[in-house]
Write a structure and sequence with these properties.
This protein is mainly α and about 350 residues long. Helix content is about 75%, strand content about 0%. The chain contains 15 helices and no strands. About 0% of the residues have low confidence.
Length: about 350
């Protein structure tokens, strides 16, 4: 089999897998932001499979340039996907689209005007350095928010998916920067083979895990039935630990402490971190540790804002006393929970004159 035939076969198989993955996600999780971004990323990746070529410096045709621009903009979609995947409160903003449009437009200008003017290598290097930057942002987002995830299966699968996609994106960008010229058949085949293997692995993993492990769903899972004596004892132990956790929140208000993590909280309660993570998720219904802490902080803030004796206390003081580090995150979390700003909440709960 020639390299050309192998290259085409691998590209076709990879595109088929990406389109099937996009179709399944659209069918089952069309209302979830992270899923919609995953669909967009899969479609953008299919465009990349069709268009990429390692080290190619030949002129780009008028139909090819827009596809390359879409493929380049896909790195912004990947970054947004990681943000949504690890932050269930994430919402798309107008400026996200502006960033995507700017990257895609830069790629189009590179393909259609800058590269033909004799700057092909400089254009390729600039585009792929930009791609590496967004991949770096995606990895940073993954690392920064991974520890707060309370769904154990999702933690493992999500890190695998993001790491695999970042690995390919990084390898592809480095190859594009280092290799030049048109004698790159082996490099192209190796690159598409790596991508095909990664896409196949992601599809395999996603078929083996409940979709709710990756994407939040409206209905919570029903607790498992416990019938044996051992399971009943485990349930009693779990209930005791949950009670201890809630007492520490209500009486000691440990959510006020600086830099509280699930690890330090587990050590304080003398229980393994994985067990505390599972209990907060399955018994209390939280999917993110920071959301769990913020809900307790907001409840304290609501009580303070409705207290007539604290009517003159500044909102920022109430926020800091409750455990928030600054006013901005407090305002956003408070409004997301109550539907109003802290100032509006205080006004609505002020005693009648």
């Amino acid at each position: 089999m020639s390299l050309t035939v192998l290259d085409v076969a691998l590209r076709a198989a990879t595109v088929a897998l990406l389109l099937a993955l996009a179709a399944l996600l659209s069918r089952d999780f069309r209302n979830v932001v992270a899923s919609r971004l995953a669909v967009a990323f899969a479609l953008g990746s299919a465009t990349h499979v069709i268009t990429f070529g390692i080290g190619a410096t030949s002129p780009v045709s008028i139909w090819h340039a827009p596809l390359i621009a879409l493929s380049t903009g896909n790195v912004v979609v990947f970054w947004l996907f990681t943000c949504a995947l690890f932050d269930e409160s994430f919402a798309l903003r107008w400026w996200h689209g502006l960033i995507w449009a700017a990257v895609a437009a830069f790629s189009f200008v590179n393909c259609f005007w800058l590269a033909p003017m004799g700057n092909a290598r400089a254009s390729i290097i600039a585009i792929n350095l930009l791609a590496l930057g967004f991949i770096g942002l995606s990895i940073r987002q993954t690392v920064a928010s991974w520890s707060a995830d309370l769904v154990e299966g999702r933690r493992q699968v999500r890190v695998f998916i993001v790491s695999a996609a970042a690995l390919y994106g990084g390898v592809n960008a480095v190859l594009q920067i280092l290799i030049s010229g048109d004698e790159t058949g082996i490099a192209n085949v190796a690159n598409v083979a790596l991508l095909a293997a990664i896409v196949a692995a992601i599809c395999y993993v996603m078929m083996r895990v409940d979709g709710a492990e990756l994407f939040p769903v409206a209905a919570a899972a029903s607790p498992p039935n416990r019938s044996t004596a051992a399971e009943a004892a485990d349930a009693a132990a779990d209930r005791k630990l949950v009670d201890a956790l809630l007492r520490s929140m209500a009486d000691e208000r440990i959510y006020r402490h600086d830099n509280i993590t699930i690890g330090t909280l587990a050590a304080r309660l003398k229980t393994p971190e994985y067990k505390l993570r599972r209990l907060i998720n399955q018994q209390l219904g939280y999917r993110n540790f920071n959301v769990f802490l913020n809900n307790h902080r907001i409840e304290e803030a609501k009580a303070a804002l409705a207290d007539p004796s604290q009517a003159e206390v500044p909102v920022i003081t109430i926020a800091m006393d409750a455990g928030f580090q600054s006013l901005g995150p407090f305002n956003r979390a408070f409004k997301a929970t109550t539907g109003v700003t802290p100032t509006q909440y205080r006004r609505l709960n002020a005693p009648a004159a």
